[in-house]
Amino acid sequence: MPVKTAMSVPLLDLRAQYADIKAELDQAVHRVLESTRFIGGPEVAGLEEEVARYCRSAHAIGCASGTDALLLALRVLDIGPGDEVVTSAFSFFASAGTIANVGARPVFVDIDPRAFNLDPHRLEAAITPATKAVMPVHLFGQCCDLTAVQAVCDKHQLWLIEDAAQAIGSEWEGRRAGSVGDFGCFSFFPSKNLGGAGDGGMVTANDAARAERLRLLREHGSKPKYHHAIIGTNSRLDAIQAAILRVKLRHLDRWSEARARNAALYDRLFEGAHLVRPYHDPRTRHIYNQYVIRVRDRDGLRAHLTERGIGSEIYYPVPLHLQECFAPLGYRAGDMRESEEAAREVLALPIYPELTEEQIRYVAAAVRDFTDPV
Fold first, then answer.
1. Does residue 38 share a domain with residue 182?
2. Is the distance from CB of 301 to CB of 69 less than 8 angstroms?
3. Are residues 176 and 61 in the same domain?
4. How many structural domains are present in the chain?
5. Exposure pattern of 266-289 as b/e (b: 16+ CB <10 Å)?
6. Segment 358-372, tens digit of pLDDT
7. What's the pTM?
């Protein structure tokens, strides 16, 4: 399938998204500027209520980033030195980095090679008397097997923290990401399906007491003001970010549906190609934060796409158990074979909602020109 017409297709085009809702976003930002309520206030409170409703969770608490969302959840549960938290070996660094940052030990579990999520069949073998929580990651916009993970957590009386940074709006058997575990942790990094104009995060919870403790921790443990019963930190969500996110949240389902349509077109165009298409578990609502294929000569394909003006990204080139900073944990190459193989083969293609059919066909043709040359 030779490439006939050259064009530029970035991995993500936030200019196109901004152009689509410019008037709404500009109005929201100006509203905050005119109010001079830059920290907290009605914009943050409004976003928290709207995200809680969207995620079908009782509470949502804004914070400074998706990383802080994970850190705060761990701190609320008093997880620290001497404790272990089980997580996926194949994820963004924050999943394991936050565990280490509270002084606990990350324990890695290999992935299901189809969905890239933590393999629940390997989970129980990783649990020890020191295990306090499990932190599954809903990678690339698809929930992990929460039924199986929750069953293991219930059996061993472990906390369940959902790393849902890439999965707002995703569902497992009809339940929204972030509503199943003790906490759900979200990121509003600009590249996410619901992205801000900078960093931002959110934690969802169903338990009122734990939600209130998290609110205290994000504000230096202060209540009332200047009175500190506990030691917290500064992890507040800015009002301008909240206002922007409130606008974008109204469009989120439309965007997620467009991503799913784009994925379906890619799937059709890649039928019979020498690559592995993304797996969509029928029990999930997949929101396609990324469209990730697997190819043996991944690096060759990426260079081929770059030459044709097509953006791509490797999520992730080094699995977490092989990161240099985790060498003291004692993991070796070969310990997590599925994660290691995925790290060698995965490539994310453009999937953003504003892609045109012409662009998708151009990307698919360029991919097949490499994987299936005539």
1. yes
2. no
3. yes
4. 2
5. beebbeebebbbbbbbeebbbbbb
6. 999 999 999 999 999
7. 0.96
For the stretch 43-101, pLDDT in tens is 999 999 999 999 999 999 999 999 999 999 999 999 999 999 999 999 999 999 999 99
CATH number, domain containing residue 242: 3.40.640.10
User: Do 107 and 236 belong to one domain?
Assistant: yes
Tell me the backbone φ, ψ of residue 361, rounded to 5 degrees.
-65, -35
Look up tokens 């299901």; give the residue.
112
Residue after which a domain boundary falls, among 249, 281, 297: 249
